[in-house]
Amino acid sequence: MNPVEEVKNRLDIVEIISGYISLSQAGANWRARCPFHNEKTPSFMVSKEKQIWHCFGCDKGGDIITFVQEYEGITFGEALRILAEKAGVVLENQRFEKKVDYNPFYQLNKLAADFYQAKLSNSDEASIKTGKYLLNRGLTEASIKKWQLGLSGSAWDELYLYLRDQGFSDEHIFQAGLIVKKKSGLGYVDRFRQRLMFPIADAQSRVVGFTSRTLAHIIFAEDDFGGKYINSPQTAIYDKSRILYGWHLAKESIRQKKYLIIVEGNMDAIMAHQAGTNNTIAVSGTALTIEQLRLIKRYANNVILAFDGDAAGSRAAFRSFALGWQEDMNLKILVLSGGDDPADMVKTDKERWLQAVKDSVPVMDYYFKRIVAGVDLNRSDHKKLAVGKLLPIIKFLKSRVEQAHYLQNLSDKLQIPLNILQGDLEQAKSFIDKPAVNNIETPRTERERKEALLLLSEKLLALAFFKPLYLEKIISDLAPEFLDEELQGLYRKVIIYYTKQHNLDNFADAGDLLLTEKNDYIRLVMLGEMEYGDYSEKDLQGDFFSHTKRLKLRKYEAERDLLIAQLRQAELSGDQDRQNSAMHQINLLNKDINKLSS
Ligand SMILES: [Zn+2]
Predict the structure, then answer these.
(1) What's the CA-to-centroid distance between 72 and ligand 1, angstroms?
(2) Torsions phi, psi of 155, nearest 5?
(3) What does the pLDDT look like over 341-365, one tens digit per residue?
(4) What Rg, from alpha-carbon coordinates, does the chain have?
(5) 430 compared with 537, residue with greater pLDDT
(6) Cα–ligand 1 centroid distance for 38 (angstroms)
(7) pLDDT 10s digits, 293-338
């Protein structure tokens, strides 16, 4: 037994989690208000039997080690050490931490980062020029090292060949996002060429991917390959919505200073650290995700967002603010004037940057000033416009005190009676209520159908995870295509794993799962526990038959619809053979459908 298993075996998840938060028993399981998101009713569940936890509110979940890791904001190794001590398991020092990353994707990204870094310190022309370029931009040698900057060269397959020499398979190198398929479809080439390489690390300081900036026309004469910036794709270990650039280097400082600064570019983050504000991280595209905000929230509740004037009014910025307010965070805005970016500011005058950080203002104040400043008090249409812009934002503020404060201000500034504004506020729609554009485009019925399919697929899998007998039955009876698309990947992996091992005991750790799949798996195991915990054998069986039947019917009916459309086409074009074949298949499907419906 390896030390991880031994620690998990010796400890009880309910006891350990109870040490952090108070759990109450609910049937065979335990529940609490989630420590990772704000909620009034508990949706955080712990299964004693399966030794896992999951929150149905924020969708986090995992085992005993990930709980400690998440709660304390520490690395896997650190969490394991804490738990090993409690369990009385002796870990062989240091060596262990390395062994944890048996996952080839971490190894590959680490090797690639080392490879690019070594290349930057070579003595060839490109390397020397790139080094000079970085110093010119204002970076110190120490920063270049601290952030592990690197260089990808001109050859088509340098990294690829190097990694293969280290014994890695094409498939793994490809899945790690480091190479791309050749246009011809045969063989691979490096994803990154002639680029400045910025390794991206997760909270545990493991390299999970790269972002890169082209050096064409700066160092290399050749034309661009791809865009100015190229990033690693989403991989098993790189989930863009959860990663913040520089987090691993900033987190301690964020914890101490109790606030963080968010900038847009990698260079900006590096230079900000150099100026002493090492509580800075970068997000590309300025829109923060809820996952990122929740990660931040566990360290600090105060966020300063650095924007240039245009970006501050963008949809992405609004979205970030809305999410931040929803999480009860204090958001400030640092406006960069005149096309300045933080990297340039630090380079030319560090003090200006530090002053700009001090001068940042609450987001609401910023918008208030900006919108009200343009109003001509003699014009009613101006006033109307300003009110129309500000009320939806004020409406979104959670605190009534804050709402009242800004309403009063607005009333004073625009010389409009407060009671009129109060009335309008009630009518106003909070700006986040508006559905996103892409939602409008999906017809409602189609969306509902999709949701129903997902729900059904989830329930069936939850049941199968709850009782292996049914897992065997669906594996032999239901191909992955019968489930909702979102769960097909997970289900395929379940089939492969179960067929080999005849159980799912270590599936969450050893099943080669993507992060989203692992999360889905744990969520569905918990769902099974909750939903089916007090079902009788007969009820279980009933649910199983009805769910599989409905899934099959849906699939057959969808196929039939498709064939009917084809038949119409064939009729129109007078293609007799295709008509016959479509008819034949429709008849076969009808038989299946009738059998199921009877
Ligand atoms: Zn939660």
Answers:
(1) 15
(2) -60, 155
(3) 899 999 999 999 999 999 999 988 8
(4) 28
(5) 537
(6) 7
(7) 878 887 888 999 987 766 666 666 777 887 888 778 889 999 887 6
Check whether residue 131 and residue 229 sit in a common domain: yes
CA distance 516 to 172: 19
What is the secondary structure of 374-398 as a DSSP string?
A: T--TT-HHHHHHHHHHHHHHHHH-S
Do residues 223 and 209 make contact, with C-beta atoms less than 8 angstroms apart?
A: no
- Classify residue 220 by its DSSP letter: B
Domain closes at, from 220, 238, 256: 238
User: How close is the Cα of 485 to the center of ligand 1, in Å?
Assistant: 25
Query: Is residue 40 in some structural domain?
Result: yes
Is residue 432 included in any domain, yes or no?
no
Are 116 and 260 members of one domain?
A: no
CA distances from 367 to 255, 287, 341, 372, 405 (A): 28, 18, 21, 8, 14
Mean pLDDT (the chain, rounded): 85
pLDDT at 111: 96
Contact 156, 191 (CB under 8 A): no
Distance in Å, CA 32 to ligand 1 centroid: 10
293 CA distance to ligand 1 centroid (A)?
13
Distance in Å, CA 39 to ligand 1 centroid: 8
User: Please, which pLDDT band fits residue 440 given cuts at 50, 70 and 90?
Assistant: very low
Quickly list DSSP for 491-514: HHHHHHHHHHHSS-TTHHHHS---
339, 284: one domain: yes
Question: Is the predicted pLDDT of residue 131 greater than 50, yes or no?
Answer: yes
CATH number of the domain to which 304 belongs: 3.40.1360.10
Q: Give the CATH number, domain containing residue 78.
A: 3.90.580.10
Same domain, residue pair 136 and 218? yes
Q: In terms of DSSP bridges, do strands 259-263 and 280-282 run parallel, antiparallel, or are they unpaired?
A: parallel
Look at residue 435 and tell me if it is in a domain.
Answer: no
Domain boundary among 209, 238, 267: 238
Check: pTM over 0.70? Answer yes or no. Answer: no
User: How many angstroms separate the alpha carbon of residue 35 from the centre of ligand 1?
Assistant: 6
The sign of the dihedral angle between the CA atoms of 231, 236, 240, 242 is negative
pLDDT band of 205, cuts 50, 70, 90: confident
Q: Give the domain range for residue 593.
A: 444-597
Q: How far is the CA of 509 from the centre of ligand 1 (A)?
A: 21
Write down how long the chain is: 598
Amino acid at 527: L
3-state helix, strand, coil in the chain (%, to 5): 60, 10, 30
Name the residue with tokens 């965070």. 329
In a domain, residue 436? The reply is no
Q: What total number of domains does the chain contain?
A: 5
Q: Using alpha carbons, list the distances in angstroms from residue 257 to 113, 252, 253, 260, 358.
A: 30, 9, 6, 8, 13
- Between the CA of 408 and the centroid of ligand 1 the distance, in Å, is 36
